[in-house]
Write the structure tokens for this entry.
Amino acid sequence: MSNLLLRFLTAVVAVPLLIAAIQWDRPLGVWLWVLAAQLTGLREWMMMTLPKESPLTRWLGVLCGTALGTALIWSEDSQLLLTGLCGVTIVGLIYFLVKHGEIETVAQRLSLWLAGILYAGVLIVPLARFKMHTPPSGGGGWIYICLTSAWVSDTFAYFFGRFGSRFWPAKLWQEISPKKTRIGGVGGVIGSLVALSIAKLWYMPVLSWTDVVLIAIPANILGQLGDLVESLIKRSVGVKDSGVLLPGHGSMLDRIDALILVVPYVYAYSHYRF
């Protein structure tokens, strides 16, 4: 079975479930999706960056990241992020000091452990927070914007890169991701503009055409950077894939790498603009 067909079949199963969660009046459905992404993404990060650490170390990171992310979703306390990060840092510092003793080893392992908690546990939190707010600054429409900004543009980038690279073969960033081309990057921007234009005309009339441009282009650039960050991480630790959870798509991190940077931007834009 081809990889493209596997990707399609996985999407046929997952997309209706995701839409049902977004359309549900209560935020629980989206939170469960975000929780699944946090749990699997954190586990993939810990396995990928700390392969020599014990399972206890890795699962402690998964639990701390998930707990902090969940608390940030459901709490209205603006000081929780600072308090939570301080608490998680203290837990990690004490744990690694007791386990390793040497400050260089402690600093290296702790930095990777904390980076994973922020990267896979915290940055995607606003996706669920959208359901805590009412339109125009909240609601399911903004979740669709995040998803389509990342995934529609990714699809455009794939096909532009596949069929357009013969005309413009220049690489986007050769050292990090040799397969990505500049024509694919252009296709991604076009895809993001198409997705936001459809959003405005269909389910987000509150957006102006200026909003469409100011969301689509920066979100696409951030999404492509998120993809490159994931590629850089995998290249740095010497692995080809961070997991094989989703047939045809690879790991959870491979699927949400663009969202991780897109979601905070769209969330901030929606709240400061509306």
In short: The longest helix spans residues 209-237.
